[in-house]
Amino acid sequence: MLKRTLFFGCFILTLNYTSLVLASGPAEQPYGAGPDAAAAADLDENAVIQWIRDKGFDPANLAKSDENKRTVLTAAAMKGRVDVLEWLHGRGANLNWADEKGRTALTAAANYGKTDVLEWLCKHKVDLNQPDKRGYTALTVAAVNGKIDVLEWLCRHKVDLNQRDKNGFTALTAAAVMSGIDSPLSVGVFKWLKDKGVVLDDNDGKGRTALTVAAAQGGVGALEWLKGQGVSLDQPDKRGFTAFTAAAADGHVNVLEWLKDQGVMFDLESEDGRIACMMAFMKRNFNVLRWFEKELELLEKQKFDFDQPD
Prior knowledge:
The protein is an all-alpha fold. The chain is built from 16 helices and no strands. It has helices spanning 2-12, 45-54, 72-79, 82-90, 105-111, 115-123, 138-144, 148-156, 171-177, 183-195, 210-217, 220-228, 243-249, 253-261, 271-282, 286-307. Helix content is 51%, strand content 0%. The longest helix is centred in the C-terminal third of the chain and has 22 residues, at 286-307. Among the domains are: 43-125, Alpha Horseshoe (Serine Threonine Protein Phosphatase 5, Tetratricopeptide repeat); 202-309, Alpha Horseshoe (Serine Threonine Protein Phosphatase 5, Tetratricopeptide repeat), CATH 1.25.40. Helix 9 (171-177) runs parallel beside helix 11 and helix 13 runs antiparallel to helix 14.
C-alpha cells in the first residue's frame, strides 16, 4: 500500500520549484558623449593602452567584448586595475554597463574580492545596491563566493545585509548555494552574518531558507552547522519545502541519510512525503525513489517483525 502511495503521489501533485531568473540591468549605452581629459590626466596612458591590448581588447572599440564575453570595464574590475577604470571613465564609460554575461564592474569586483575597485566605484557614485543584468548584487555575489572582506566593506558602507537581489537571494541563502561544493566556505559566511545579527532561519525573497537551499545543494556540512546553531531540521520554508523535500527534489540521498541519522521522521503518506516523492519523480531522481523504496521495505519489515507474537 505504501509503495502504491509513493508512486501515485508522483502523478497527482504539482509544485513549482524556484529557479534562478535573469533580471535586466540599468545600462543601455557603454560610453557617453565624449572624453574627460582631466579625469585621466595623471595616468600612464601608454601603460593602460598596452594592458588593454594585452588582454585582447581593441582600444579603438572599447564596447567590444573579448572571447570570455567580458568588456574592458569588467575585465579591469576583475583584475583590480583602477588605473584602467579611471582611463575608461575619462572617456565617458558608463560604469553600470553590463558585459555579455550580465556582469557589471561592481559585481565583477565583488566576485573577485577587489575592495579597491569597490572604493573607486563608490567614489564615482555607483549605487552599491544596484543589481547587475543577471539580477545579482555585490552583496549576494560576495556571499556566494565567500568574500568576507567584501562583505565587511559593504557592511561599513551601510549596505543592508538582509537585502534581496532580483532573484530573491539574500546573502544568507546565496552563501548556502555553494554548500554542496564547499561547505566550509558557506559556513564561514553564515558565521559572519550571524555575528552581524542576521537571523539564520529567515526566508529570502523566493521563500527559501539557508537550510532548504543547503539541503537542495547536498551541503551536509552546512546543515550540520545550522543544526548546531539551533535551526530546526523540520522547519518548512515559505514555499512549504523542508530540508527533506528539498534534498529529495534535487537527488541528494546523502542528505536524506543524514537527516534520518539526525532523527528526522518522514512519512511518505504525509503531504511532505508526497511532495518529496513527486519532486523526485518529476526530476527523474531515481536514486531517491530507490532510496524511498528501500526505506519502505525496511519499515514494512520492522512493522511485520513487531507484530509477530513472541
